[in-house]
Structure to design on (457 residues):
């Protein structure tokens, strides 16, 4: 009788090293052994040859409910499973339900729990009219972090949090040990530049980048990091499109502050002069996609260790919201859960960046960031057996053909991906076999920081 339930053999990729001829053994849904050489026996054993075996990805930024009656967790977690993402962290800006109270958290947990095919954690936020009064109750309800914005899209669903209130929020969060993540664009600066673009009559693909030049983002980065330094709260920029943002975070960390930065996969893949020009509204994202030179500068920041997390900022808008003739009239955001891991691996290998960065930026660091590393984020004994298998099978990505997305469009359509997700395991159970999502709705679990957090309530 074997001591293990599942054994996978191939090249094991951890945050620290590659183990050629390695194996991962699973027992009772958890990692039981990681080794090299002859693998132990198990009822289910896969000799995977040249395949890569990585920890399941944790996508730090997902919007499952941004468009009512559109995607929901039934589809977002299906895309996640097909992309090797075993935990999603869902944003609090849901159409019709701002997640800004313990009751709202509980409602969302119940709603998502009935649908989710992979595990999920949740962000909380505030209603500006209530201020900080509900922050501690949301911590007790299990949120993994808080999200705010220096830019307001809608006064209720996606409100701007003014500097004084932002500082109050950071001060309230600091004792809990959680992180404050912030959408990083200065509202007044964006408004001014957008007015100039409209006055100039520019409506094509150029309008978006011109309406949100780098200064609108960098001023917000400084506000966020300075607020964190002042209050002692871990400060996180949720989507840096600029290498300068990662450099700023590194400088604050060098001074002893908890300052982190997230780069979405679209900022490492798409560029303004080719992709935004070609795709128009389907490449409209806030902050904007930047020129190719900035893309490569961001990759250098990845290589230097200045980037903390890589995520998708996934949202599956219906096509009618992304194909309007005037660029600024389109919704902002793109789907990406199904391809984040293969796109990052492709980009890293093309630039000579070690694959260990994939395990670090999409698993180990997110788990630590959201205080769920007691069970998630690494191929380590005792942690959940969340595993991705990548095989060297080049393919042209076609979102419509895969069947795992609620929408049939993607800004990554037609791109060649040299590595394919051929298997995803959640707590040792197969949830994707390379073609079909096997996980049933409701098989995913709500993941939260341990009871030892917060420090105070």
């Amino acid at each position: 009788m074997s001591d293990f339930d599942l054994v996978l053999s191939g090249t094991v990729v951890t945050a620290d090293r590659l183990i050629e001829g390695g194996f991962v053994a699973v027992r009772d849904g958890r990692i039981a052994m990681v080794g090299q050489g002859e693998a132990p026996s198990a009822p289910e054993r896969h000799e995977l040859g040249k395949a890569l075996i990585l920890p399941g990805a944790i996508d730090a930024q997902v919007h499952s409910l941004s468009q009512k009656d559109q995607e929901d967790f039934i589809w977002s977690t299906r895309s996640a499973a097909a992309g090797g993402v075993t935990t999603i962290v869902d944003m609090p800006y849901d159409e019709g339900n701002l997640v800004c109270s313990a009751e709202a958290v509980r409602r969302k947990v119940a709603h998502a729990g009935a649908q989710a095919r992979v595990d999920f954690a949740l962000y909380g936020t505030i209603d500006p009219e209530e201020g900080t009064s509900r922050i501690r109750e949301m911590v007790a309800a299990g949120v993994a972090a808080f999200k705010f914005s220096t830019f307001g899209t809608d006064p209720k669903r996606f409100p701007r949090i003014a500097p004084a209130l932002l500082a109050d929020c950071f001060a309230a969060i600091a004792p809990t040990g959680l992180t404050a993540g912030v959408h990083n664009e200065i509202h007044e600066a964006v408004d001014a530049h957008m007015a100039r673009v409209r006055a100039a009559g520019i409506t094509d693909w150029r309008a978006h980048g011109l309406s949100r030049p780098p200064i609108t983002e960098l001023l917000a980065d400084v506000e966020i990091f300075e607020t964190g330094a002042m209050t002692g709260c871990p400060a996180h920029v949720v989507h840096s499109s600029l290498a300068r943002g990662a450099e700023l975070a590194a400088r604050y960390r060098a001074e002893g502050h908890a300052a982190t930065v997230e780069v979405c996969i679209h900022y490492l893949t798409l560029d303004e002069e080719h992709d935004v020009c070609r795709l128009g509204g389907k490449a409209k994202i806030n902050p904007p996609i930047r020129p190719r030179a900035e893309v490569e500068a961001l990759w250098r920041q990845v290589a230097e260790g200045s980037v903390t997390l890589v995520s998708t900022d996934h949202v599956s808008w219906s096509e009618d919201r992304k194909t309007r003739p005037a660029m600024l009239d389109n919704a902002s955001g793109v789907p990406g859960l199904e391809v984040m891991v293969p796109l990052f691996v492709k980009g890293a290998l093309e630039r000579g960046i070690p694959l260990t960065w994939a395990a670090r930026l999409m698993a180990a660091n997110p788990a630590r960031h959201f205080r769920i590393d007691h069970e998630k984020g690494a191929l380590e004994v005792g942690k959940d057996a969340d595993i991705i298998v990548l095989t060297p099978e080049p393919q042209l990505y076609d979102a419509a053909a895969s069947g795992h997305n609620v929408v049939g469009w993607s800004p990554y359509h037609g791109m060649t991906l040299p590595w394919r997700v051929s298997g995803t395991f959640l707590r040792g159970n197969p949830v994707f076999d390379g073609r079909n999502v096997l996980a049933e709705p409701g098989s995913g679990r709500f993941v939260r920081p341990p009871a030892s957090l917060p420090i105070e309530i």
About this structure: The first helix runs from residue 72 to 82. The chain has a mean pLDDT of 96. The radius of gyration is 21 Å. The chain is about 30% helix and 20% strand.
